Amino acid sequence: MCAACALSLGKPVLCVGSLSIDLLQFCRQVPQPNATEHCKKARWQRGGHAANVCRVLHLLGVQTELLAMLSRSSALQSMLRELHRSNIETSHCPRTELEPAYKTVSIGPRAGQRSVVECDRNFPYVQAEHFQQLDLSQYGWVHFEARSLRETLKMMRSIWEYNNGREERIRISLRVAADFAEHKDLFSMCDYVIVSHEMGVAQGWHSLDHACQELRRTIALPYSLHVRRPCFIISWGAVGAGCIDRAGNYALLPAERVNFVVDSYGVGHCFTAALIYAKYMRQMELKSALEFAIRIGAAKLMAIGYKHLAKLYTYPPDPRSDADTELIEPSDEEDAELRICSAIFNRPIDYTRHDRKSRPMANIAGATGEKRFSRTVEIFSRQVRSIIKSYREKSRQLSTKFIAVVDLAAHANKKRT
Question: Which of 92, 100, 142, 353 could covalently link to 71 via disulfide, CB atoms 3.0 to 4.6 Å apart?
């Protein structure tokens, strides 16, 4: 795929939060106290909710920027270089000499079976003064982690002051994974509040329907009063997810069926990033955006890491011109591939039709339900590869014929002389 087709067409998404180092250990069983276990494999990877949401948004084709406190430790430099290679902006991130936060995750063979040990040693969080140095006109969406209530409140107030009297507003989303009651005061300042399954269980909500009913009561004022309310989204693991719009109407959607789970760590990051992508870049309705987020979360379960999400081809339709964007002129060899990619990738996704003759990928595209993808990821990518392959094959044939004609002409000219 050519680079021009992957460019985001809107303003960047700013993710405010943390960046840490995660050590993942894949074990035959989760270690018990006073027991020695041997893991099957282990790996280091970039951690932190905001950093991983940036990564997934980038893979989906969105320009992103990370605002987090970064350590100057050599242990973090490889991850920072990876962010730089991914074109994730970190130039506004403050630095510290302290060692970065670490997290050790022991993952068992079954989905959701894991234990987590965090070691942040009171690692500093990004301050409001760092946020206030930014030019907010450069961003279209700001996503926060529910951490450091006082500093986050100051940052959100800065966005509200910027939005005051403007038609083009910056939208605010908040991910709540801990301290629900403490961060309630932030909800009315957000456009979207995303609540994790773990947070719902900690609150004593015993089901997805119960969780949605309790979230409706979070803002006590009756819905007959026209006051600012956020949209609530809550994920509930293998059961599915639910959403509540500003009018108080809620919908429950089932999870996608996955036959074999490969890696469940980071599904929440993918769910959040996909929801932001669907609302911001695709301009989907809340229920459709939630359905899209569930499918991306199911796709995450099928492979280790996040890189495979870049193959889903979910780039924004209806490209718009941007006077401030410098377009790179493709070379002659890339020009044909650019035209092919532009014609295919810029088509909108159709959720109402399903190609029954094609081999379905139920885990990603959703083989059940009334709304289905018109084309599965596998069929879509195969079509693109076949078109590009046929074009290159024809180019090689024409090149061979041209060389043969030139050689024949040269040979005939040599005979005449």
Answer: 100
Residue 404: what pLDDT?
A: 72
| pLDDT over threshold 60, residue 1 | no
In one-letter notation, the amino acid at residue 103 is: K
Q: How far apart are CA 143 and CA 233, in angstroms?
A: 14
Q: Judge whether residue 194 has pLDDT over 60.
A: yes
DSSP sequence for 236-261: -GGGEEEEE-TTS-EEEEEPPP-SS-
CB atoms within 10 A of CB 26: 18
Question: CA 153, CA 132: separation in Å to the nearest integer?
Answer: 12
Q: Are strands 102-107 and 114-119 parallel, antiparallel or unpaired?
A: antiparallel
Torsion, Cα 64 122 263 172, to 10 degrees, reads -40
Ramachandran sector of residue 268 (left: φ over 0; alpha: ψ -120 to 50; beta: rest): alpha
**Beta bridge pairs of residue 143:** 15, 173
Query: pLDDT digits over 264-318, tens only?
Result: 888 899 999 999 999 999 889 999 999 999 999 988 888 888 888 877 754 444 3
Helices 267-280, 286-300: axis angle to 10 degrees equals 140
